[in-house]
Specification:
Number of strands: 4
Strand content: 5-15%
Oligomer: single chain
Largest sheet: 4 strands, antiparallel
Bound molecules: zinc ion
Order of helices and strands: HHHEEEEHH
CATH topology of the largest domain: DNA Primase, Chain A
Strand order of the largest sheet: 1-2-3-4
CATH class of the largest domain: Alpha Beta
CATH superfamily of the largest domain: Zinc finger, CHC2-typedomain
Distance between the termini: 77 Å
Length: 142
């Protein structure tokens, strides 16, 4: 009697083990399908690479379009970028940009980045990939 009960309990625990295995397998398959679907979406719409975006958009053109009071007197080294777009700036002088790389830095609010992509990410609160999308859409990068 005790022996039979033990066997039945073992059967039950085995059965529940199988059920959770199936649930586990289903969730794995589900996530694999989701991954495959998002990969398919990426193939239909390709985002230009960071290299392509930086090659297509010159930092000079970009900053002249994005910074209303940017008036470059030279195009090399760190130069004055006018009013900082990252804080309520009233006095020019603290926002510097470098047209060689697209780097920018504000000595007042601490905003900084190494290229025009990080500029868009920081200003518009975008992820890297979304910033690439926004830049390529606005500037007609293939
Ligand atoms: Zn600033």
């Amino acid at each position: 009697m005790a022996c039979c009960l033990g066997t039945r309990l073992r059967h039950l625990s085995l059965k529940s083990g199988v059920v959770s295995d199936i649930a586990f397998t289903t969730s794995i398959l589900g996530s694999m399908q989701t991954a495959a679907q998002s990969r398919g979406g990426a193939i239909m719409h390709t985002t230009p690479t960071a290299e392509a975006v930086k090659k297509a958009i010159s930092p000079l053109d970009f900053f002249q379009a994005e910074l209303p009071d940017f008036n470059p007197k030279r195009t090399t080294g760190w130069i004055d970028g006018g009013l900082c777009p990252f804080h309520q700036d009233r006095r020019p002088g603290s926002f510097k940009i470098c047209l060689d790389s697209g780097s920018f830095r504000c000595f007042s609010c601490g905003a900084r980045g190494g290229d025009i992509i990080s500029f868009v990410m920081l200003r518009d609160g975008l992820k890297f990939r979304d910033a690439l999308e926004a830049l390529s859409a606005n500037w007609g990068v293939d």
